[in-house]
Amino acid sequence: xxxxxxxxxxxxxxxxxxxxxxxxxxxxxxxxxxxxxxxxxxxxxxxxxxxxxxxxxxxxxxxxxxxxxxxxxxxxxxxxxxxxxxxxxxxxxxxxxxxxxxxx
Length: 104
Prior knowledge:
This protein is mainly alpha-helical. The chain has a single domain, classed as Alpha Horseshoe (Serine Threonine Protein Phosphatase 5, Tetratricopeptide repeat). It has 6 helices and 2 strands. A two-stranded antiparallel ribbon has the order 1-2. It is globular, with a radius of gyration of 14 Å.
């Protein structure tokens, strides 16, 4: 079973689209991995299943660097298909460090 069919299978069966985001040591959600690897069909299936796209990722070892969101990652990859999917959910996906609660 390829990755896209696997994502469609799980999304269609009401699986948790954010599985791994809270339980893995790296906190990598399936949506983050799909965006980072350029799997637009998987991104679409996960967004349709309600995956949380308010994700910030430290892409630099510099602690002063601003973390990237999923839109930034898709832009950096020049992945126009994934970027369009995320832009359709921009109200939820376009987050920044300023959007985080102050106590974090």
